[in-house]
TrEMBL record:
Signal peptide: none annotated. Keywords: ATP-binding, Cell membrane, Membrane, Nucleotide-binding, Sulfate transport, Translocase, Transport. This is TOBE-like domain-containing protein. Residues 3-233 form the ABC transporter domain. Pfam families: ABC_tran, TOBE_3. NCBIfam families: 3a0106s01 (TIGR00968). InterPro entries: AAA+_ATPase, ABC_SmlMolc_Importer, ABC_transporter-like_ATP-bd, ABC_transporter-like_CS, Mo/tungstate-bd_C_term_dom, P-loop_NTPase, Sulph_transpt1, TOBE-like. It comes from Cellulomonas alba. It comes from the Bacteria.
Length: 312
């Protein structure tokens, strides 16, 4: 199902949460709405899902005007950061809940829920209560519950935000595999740049209620539309008065007419990488990202004179 937002504006009192936003989400893809807190990404998701009504503009799903259609009539599945599980029900009953209230046949519910629990790798936990699950398992249960109604669109609002870093990494890899299998049009809100770049087919950068740039992850990272997008989508440093990626700065140990003279102020190993903090002869502070092998090959030391230039 395709999603189109056209000229959407949403205010909360004097605060403009969305300012004339237009967006096309391609059918069957996984699109990430990425931006800082308060930038408007969750409001845009809620407008698409029918949880908020725009002050102006329209929302279409599969070509149909949904702007004033209630959320429960849009064929949309929601997953939020907080699981909102029914704690007194088993995992099976939590996933089955939406089918039960629709009065689907018991055999159909049993078959469907069994398939979904297997899909999210929770078939062995069907009889447990949500309190007996880990955070990652509870979020997988929430996804299964959202998929039970066979939504045409799946909307996820910071689904892994309450989880620790290791579980987040595991779940976003799992989400990508799940999406490739079920292929429902999916929009996920996140403020985690790595998460967006890793899971999404397309990234929408939202800031101050406006869309800054839309495109595939590689395009946004390599060809940012402006300084905000560049700074938000990865590490940056300033060299010669302009923003550059720290891994695109080359350190030379011999003088070069095309390079800026500098001095190594600090070396810090960060896992596989080495961070070199440097100060140019003009007093500009910058940093360079190198592999440990490259830093060792250069025999870098704090206080050493070096020369810097950007690659490409």
């Amino acid at each position: 199902m395709s999603i189109q937002a056209q000229g959407v504006t949403k205010r909360f009192g004097p605060f403009v949460a969305l300012d004339d936003v237009s967006l096309d989400v391609r059918p069957g893809g996984l699109t990430a709405l990425l931006g800082p807190s308060g930038g408007g990404k969750s409001t845009l998701l809620r407008v698409i899902g029918g949880l908020e009504t725009p002050d102006s503009g329209e929302v279409r799903i599969d070509g149909r005007d949904m702007t004033r259609v209630p959320a429960h009539e849009r064929g949309v599945g929601f997953v939020f950061q907080h699981y909102a599980a029914f704690e007194h029900l088993s995992v099976f009953r939590n996933v089955a809940f939406g089918l039960e209230i629709r009065k689907r046949p018991k055999d159909e519910i049993r078959r469907k829920v069994g398939e979904l629990l297997e899909l999210v790798h929770l078939e062995a936990f069907a009889d447990r209560r949500p309190a007996q699950l880990s955070g990652g398992q509870r979020q997988r249960m929430a996804l299964a519950r959202a998929l039970a109604a066979e939504p045409s669109v799946l909307l996820l609002d910071e689904p892994f935000g309450a989880l620790d870093t290791k579980v987040r990494r595991e779940l976003r890899a799992w989400l990508r595999r799940l999406h490739d299998e079920v292929q429902v049009t999916t929009v996920v809100v996140t403020h985690d740049q790595e998460e967006a770049l890793e899971v999404a087919d397309e990234v929408v950068v939202v800031n101050h209620g406006r869309v800054e740039q839309v495109g595939p992850p590689d395009e946004l990272y390599d060809k940012p539309a402006n300084d905000f997008v560049m700074e938000f989508l990865g590490p940056v440093t300033t060299l010669g008065g302009r923003l550059v990626r720290p891994h695109d700065v080359e350190i030379l140990t011999e003088r070069s007419a095309s390079a800026l003279p500098a001095r190594v102020a600090r070396l810090q190993r960060v896992g596989f990488d080495v961070r070199a903090d440097v100060t140019t002869s003009e007093g500009e502070a910058a940093w360079v990202q190198l592999t440990r092998a490259h830093a060792d090959a250069l025999a870098l030391a704090e206080g050493a004179d070096v020369w810097l230039r950007t690659r490409g």
